[in-house]
Amino acid sequence: MVAPTLTTSRLRLRFWRDEDLEPFAALNADPRVMRHFRAPLTRDESDLMAARIRDRMSDQPFGLWAVEVPGTADFIGYVGLSVPGFTAHFTPCVEVGWRLAFDHWGRGYASEAARAAQAHAFSSLRMEEVVSFTVPANLRSIGVMERIGLTRLPADDFLHPSFPEGHPLRPHVLYRLSRAGWMAGKQG
């Protein structure tokens, strides 16, 4: 039950290759990309993260796909679906998420790839809901969430349990999209 390759008009979401590790480490070390995360990652931390992503994609029909722009860039980051590893009022759930290299921001790639991941979640896998979350200051990701149809109810916002009390990254906003909402958006 391996995650399939997904394609859009400009992108290919595929299984990871060994040659993705170096550009993945570069984007994980970039303070601009990692601004709203705990800290940039070392090469070892980045490689370990990629190994976990690959392992999960090997035994389930979804994951955090490596994203390429055919004919332009072999690897620009990841976009996809994952199951958060913490407990909150909205878990268990499936999150749609992304992390792209800075040089590829502002081109609509995150939104385009996330729409493909959502379509896979709702039509192929028949999931009932996807969520996405980030810190309130991450306006770029919030913009992607809104462009792909997710909506926020402030009562859903939460304190991320991976951060200690008082940490500036602990408050998070939560966005949701139901399968019915996705279907209604396709009709409109």
Order of helices and strands: EEHHEEEHEHEEEH
Instruction: Give the CATH architecture.
Output: 3-Layer(aba) Sandwich
State the CATH superfamily name: Gcn5-related N-acetyltransferase (GNAT)
Q: How many domains, in number, for the residues? A: 1
Proportion in helices: 25-40%
Low-confidence segments: none
Count of DSSP H/I helices? 5
Domain N-acetyltransferase: 11-170
Protein name: RimJ/RimL family protein N-acetyltransferase
InterPro entries: Acyl_CoA_acyltransferase (IPR016181), GNAT_dom (IPR000182), N-acetyltransferase (IPR051531)
Pfam family, one: Acetyltransf_3
Would you mind describing this structure in some detail?
The protein is globular. The N and C termini lie far apart (33 Å). The chain has helices at 21-29, 43-58, 109-124, 139-147, 179-187, and strands at residues 6-7, 12-14, 64-69, 73-82, 95-100, 129-134, 151-152, 158-159, 171-178. 32% of the residues are buried. The longest helix has 16 residues, at 43-58. It has one domain: Aminopeptidase (3-Layer(aba) Sandwich), CATH 3.40.630.30. Strands 1-2-3-4-5 form a five-stranded antiparallel β-sheet, with helices on both faces. Strands 6, 7, 8 and 9 form a four-stranded antiparallel β-sheet that branches. With 188 residues, it is α+β, with helices and mostly antiparallel strands.
